């Protein structure tokens, strides 16, 4: 279904706004959802009741776990779902002129009131084949929301999982900062990245709007351009600094120069080899943020210029009653440089009896990915904080999660989608899923039951079967059992409290704790088992047999 | 600079809206731009005049060309740049309490009126090192817009280039459709993808909102779920179809069954082997869109069920005066299947004397990337149209372009950023760039001059030098010379017509025509040469010498 009859509008007409008052528009969908809706409507199937499962088939990044993210956005989309008059007008212009007018009335009056949405909690650790979201309702309505739901869950879950992998790779005391705005897919891509990286375990972001919108702690100091914009100490027009908790103004530049000369022998550098513009930049930044100096020291030469200039200004700040924060490295061998910086910190600490100096921050931010962090850990390093951009937000290792949205029941009849690729066979019918835990609190297995089966009971033997392979099965006696889905939307209303982003982050961190270490390791992790009940197993295989082609072996 | 003092807000407070009335907010930037602005302001550098270049260092996808995209969004961002009261209030809450109050007044009153923006035309084919955008103005203002500009140009140019590479790979008569909404980075990522893939040479998108907002032709028919939602012919509650240009209603299901039996011998299938639900789905879709049937034929079995069912309904449509469109394949061996489908089309065409049947559409859409298209072309195939999602919009091969924004001049003094990595050395100072063309209309070389040099003249020998390597130089006598940058923003006003998206697409296609074939080929393309004038070469190398460390070889 297509039309090019409509003249191409000036791209400026709609001004790039995909939302109205922050609401994602119903039209953010694939055209085929609309053409299918018309076809359902026309053949009288608009009242058919369908159940669709949203799930993924494979964990990303060669890993064995995923974080579920994006649910709040899905629920709010469903809450606000509505075709506007201008949407209808647009659809009328692009769809075939043979479309009956009453269909547009139907679309205009369409609501999500008759949908029931079952979902896992956002922030839960999730696994392949277990539905993240199950939706029941009128066939055309469920289909219309497929694309926006996939859009909202796919990238959110992917980038939250990526962030969590960085979180696992880094030392727990290491601060992780998301610096990806400039590499994300446009403004909204950048905001999604900041939001879901925080949920996945990052500690802050450079993205100021994300800070404002989502309450994420924001971080940042200065760029190379800041350093190169200063040529010499003459660029500092105001030389003074007011001492901390005092009104006394001192010539801060003079104090810096005094410390420069004191430091030359201690940390072995030549005052005429440091870049004067870099020194001026650090002084200027220190005057602006005397309690927050994090100096980017690699613009010219880390060892001969950047680090000595930082120590100079840091000791001058100390003399004035302030405490500097540390340095940032943005190029070169981060392991080697961080060890060197820590050695110099320690030397200065001893030489001037400033114990805290050895613990100053070392931030690193040069094209870091998950493997870099593992490699740095093996080499040994002294980095306290990573700023991570490109690899984090673009998910370079695997830039798409691949969630799918599959019909599993229509008018109470289970549907199965067969495929020669076993991984692509769907699990039919309405289901209930459980997570079974051992007595150590670790998750043992996820179990999918048919809707009307009794739930597994703690301390009772439960048969867990691989959905497709007969030989794979085990009896599990769980210490405790968790129901994985809750009703999030019913009768036109949100049915659950939607947590704050901070609560979602806590939830994700807590859920991660219940996953065994061997499922989380970077190299060859053990697959977590997702199973079905004996009854569901039999049902799947009966449906499979029923749909075999007639008259031949296949 | 950071603060966690602010309690983390409910993520629902701002409702995910990154824009107000479609305008990207000024706060969509990295925090360090704000902290640097404060530092500049505090040290009296807020009136310094800076020149920054926005450029990239390497073409993406192992290619030798890039399409410049995102300029309109940049210019509109600059036009609407303004900190709101709530932005200021937020900044006050997260910045150090030591920040002077007058700075917030300064921020509140900040405008982009004093900026001058020089840019290449959007849609132009561009190369490494030649600035896409050059911005001159007050240092803090230019820095504040760095992040949003990089955000807006990076992904736009990357995905437009990716689209163009698909366009080059495909046969010129092949229709390319973007199907990536569900795999993009959130709603806005999806819209950017649709917009810039169209600019890069795609013919349409499945994204309905992108169609509405940007006038992109929208396409789509139905999904597998549509097919599986029908179980048998009994699902068709209305059996009739009105004949084309007539009021006569016929029993369309009966006509289909008649054609099914006629076709069994012609294309060799068994009526009891086709899936009845699939036939019902195609009939239903045909009743809704009798002139637009594109049937997805791989839900069960392409050869035994999907294709016979399509031919059945297609011939029935023909009997009723309508013309079907064709089929879509979404799995399996696309080359083999498309050849088979064309053979069957041809058989039907001959058997029933319907010549046009052999030319029906074959659309393919299974996880297609650039290499798949090259491989299909080598094998031979009959596909008329590709629907491409994941690989296109996520740019799987290289998910970030890596544009940078570098200070090249401050207060009329050129600045150079040195690096041990030659590729990272900046070209200092304000520049003027030209594209030199041969008499065949092909681009020969891009040439960067210093600001005050005379331009190269047609038919005169011009020395073009590699910016960093002394031995690489050549005399070029161009047939014609194009100035590459225009003033897009000055005195607070847009200075150029901003073309429609369709015009930008035409521009990109036209610009591509001027690039030699060997620069465009997929495997080992020849690098296009970017050069500097003799005078700029000397200037770079003088600055380089001047900034050498004192007292040693380095």
Q: What can be said about the biggest beta sheet of chain A?
A: 7 strands, antiparallel
- The CATH architecture name of the largest domain in chain A reads Alpha-Beta Barrel
Count of β-strands of chain A = 27
Kindly report the name of the CATH homologous superfamily of the largest domain in chain A.
Answer: nicotinate phosphoribosyltransferase
Strand order of the largest sheet of chain A: 19-18-4-8-6-25-26
- Radius of gyration of chain A (CA) equals 29 Å
- The general outline of chain A is elongated
- CA-CA gap between termini of chain A: 34 Å
Query: Stretches of chain A where pLDDT falls below 50 for ≥5 residues?
Result: 1-21, 550-554
The SS-based structural class of chain A is alpha/beta
Percent helix of chain A: 25-40%
Pathway (chains A, B): Cofactor biosynthesis; NAD(+) biosynthesis; nicotinate D-ribonucleotide from nicotinate: step 1/1
Enzyme class (chains A, B): ligase
EC number (chains A, B): 6.3.4.21
GO molecular function (chains A, B): nicotinate phosphoribosyltransferase activity; transferase activity
């Amino acid at each position: 279904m297509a039309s090019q009859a409509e003249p191409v509008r000036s791209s400026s007409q709609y001004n790039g706004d995909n939302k109205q008052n922050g609401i994602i528009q119903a039209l953010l969908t694939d055209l085929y959802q609309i053409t299918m809706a018309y076809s359902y409507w026309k053949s009288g199937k608009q009242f058919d009741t369908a159940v669709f499962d949203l799930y993924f088939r494979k964990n990303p990044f060669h890993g064995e776990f995923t974080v579920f993210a994006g649910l709040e956005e899905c629920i709010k989309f469903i809450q606000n779902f509505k075709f506007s008059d201008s949407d209808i007008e647009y659809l009328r212009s692009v769809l075939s002129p043979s479309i009956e007018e009453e269909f547009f009335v139907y679309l205009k009056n369409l609501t999500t009131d008759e949908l029931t949405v079952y979902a896992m909690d956002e922030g839960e650790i999730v696994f392949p084949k277990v539905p993240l979201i199950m939706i029941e309702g009128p066939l055309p309505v469920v289909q219309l929301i497929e694309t926006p739901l996939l859009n909202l869950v796919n990238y959110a879950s992917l980038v939250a999982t990526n962030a969590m992998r960085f979180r696992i790779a880094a030392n727990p005391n290491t601060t992780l900062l998301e610096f990806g705005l400039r590499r994300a897919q446009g403004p909204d891509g950048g905001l999604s990245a900041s939001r879901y990286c925080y949920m996945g375990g990052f500690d802050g972001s450079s993205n100021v709007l994300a800070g404002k919108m989502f309450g994420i702690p924001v971080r940042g100091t200065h760029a190379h351009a800041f350093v190169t914009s200063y040529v010499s100490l003459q660029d500092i027009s105001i030389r003074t600094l007011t001492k901390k908790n005092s009104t006394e103004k001192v010539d801060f530049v003079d104090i810096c120069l005094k410390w420069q000369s004191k430091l030359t022998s201690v940390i072995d550098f030549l005052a005429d080899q440091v870049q004067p513009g870099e020194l001026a930049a650090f002084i200027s930044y220190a005057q602006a943020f005397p309690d927050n100096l994090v100096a980017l020291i690699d613009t010219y030469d880390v060892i001969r210029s950047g680090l000595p200039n930082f120590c100079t200004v840091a000791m001058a700040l100390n003399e004035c009653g302030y405490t500097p924060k540390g340095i940032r490295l943005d190029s070169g061998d981060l392991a080697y440089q961080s060890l060197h910086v820590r050695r110099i910190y320690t030397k200065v600490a001893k030489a001037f009896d400033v114990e805290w100096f050895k613990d100053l921050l070392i931030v690193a931010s040069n094209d870091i990915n998950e493997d870099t962090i593992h490699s740095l850990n093996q080499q040994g390093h002294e980095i306290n904080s990573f700023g991570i951009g490109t690899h984090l937000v673009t998910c370079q290792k695997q830039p798409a999660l691949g969630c799918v949205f599959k019909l599993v029941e229509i008018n109470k009849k289970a549907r199965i989608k067969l495929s020669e690729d076993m991984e692509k066979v769907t699990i039919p019918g309405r289901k209930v899923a459980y997570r079974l835990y051992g007595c150590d609190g670790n998750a043992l297995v996820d179990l999918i039951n048919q809707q009307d089966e009794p739930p597994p009971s703690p301390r009772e033997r439960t048969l867990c079967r691989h959905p497709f392979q007969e030989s794979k099965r085990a009896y599990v006696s769980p210490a405790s059992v968790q129901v994985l889905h809750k009703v999030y939307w019913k009768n036109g209303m949100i049915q659950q409290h939607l947590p704050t982003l901070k609560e979602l982050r806590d939830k994700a961190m807590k859920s991660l704790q219940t996953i065994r270490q061997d499922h989380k390791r970077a190299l060859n992790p053990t697959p977590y088992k997702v199973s079905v009940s004996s009854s569901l197993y039999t049902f799947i295989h009966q449906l499979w047999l029923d749909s075999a082609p007639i008259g031949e072996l296949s």
